[in-house]
ABC transporter ATP-binding protein
Amino acid sequence: MPDSVDILRLESLQVHFPVQGGLFDRVLGRPAGAVRAVDGIDLNVRRGEIVALVGESGSGKTTVGRVITKLAQPTGGRLLFEGRDMTSVQGSSALRPYRNRVQMIFQDAYQALNPRHTVFDIVAEPLRSLRLVENNGQLTERVSEALAAAGLNPPGDFFARFPHELSGGQRQRAVIAGALAVKPELIVADEPVSMLDVSIRAQILQVLVDLREKHNMALLFITHDLPLAWLIANRIAVLYLGKLVEIGTADDITFNPRHPYTVALRNATPQIGSNADRRELPALQGEVPSAARIPNGCRFHPRCPMAIDRCRQEEPPAVEVGPQHLSACWRTGEVNARSELLRLAPL
Ligand SMILES: Nc1ncnc2c1ncn2[C@@H]1O[C@H](COP(=O)(O)OP(=O)(O)OP(=O)(O)O)[C@@H](O)[C@H]1O
């Protein structure tokens, strides 16, 4: 079970990318805009906890992961690791201790692996560059340990292989081994199984769950797939256009959602629950609006069947709707009550 101690904390985190205005904007003196990829997020991850960050494409999930792993710099807010403010720490030597403790696993294992390096060199690379081993004996030991923990057994059989000699599942295991080699305390995994066959997904997820159980490692699991999030996570945070609209335990988010967007996401995945148990909200339709043009008021209102005038004008704050459960919706009480309105108003 996760500790009560936060290993990671995001406070009002913001990442805005400037966009160049068009010719007309410049002629008319209109200010250049911004893509508000991450627009004020508060989130904590406890030691030994798996938190899933769920949202549609373009909601800002990867950008959050890149900020946590210091691959992107926030434009506002704070990133705290074990209470220490890491927001403005930069430069490879200043970041070395942090990189020993926080690692990222990317979605596309093929791209993440250098095709000209052997599996041994791929897994050894962070150990060498972060100067975590003193001699070759130690290096071989740590590489073997990481390969075994990622399920590549016996490890020695994989040392001399190149990425093209591995199956898709083995490649993702090699990527995981590279992240594990440094024995991190937090891993950010960005859609780590979305490119794998269904039959292999469960095995890879099991590797991640085992790490939490054996090493009390924390995991931020980024996915667009709510059932997958429910399967693996202790808590789920639902992201919509750069803002968290709901956070709660995996069971609450999946079976007792209190935000219309979460209900719609859930209804878009027929494998959850029985038909009788599903909320009578039609599946989510329409595209996520651009993060360069975020609607006023509640950003979900143009797609929300429950929207009222207030939703078009005022942004709802996240309010507590149960233990460890927050929802940012003016009508959250009615979402819970399975109102007639949900049934009547089509998306
Ligand atoms: N470097 C950048 N410059 C400008 N806009 C960017 C940049 N990186 C991301 N964005 C924009 O920020 C928004 C969030 O992108 P992000 O990749 O974080 O979303 P995501 O939820 O991970 O999507 P996906 O699941 O498709 O990867 C998108 O509108 C994206 O186009």
About this structure: The pocket of adenosine-5'-triphosphate is lined by residues 17, 35, 37, 55, 57-63, 224, 291 (CB under 6 Å). DSSP finds 14 helices and twelve strands in the chain.
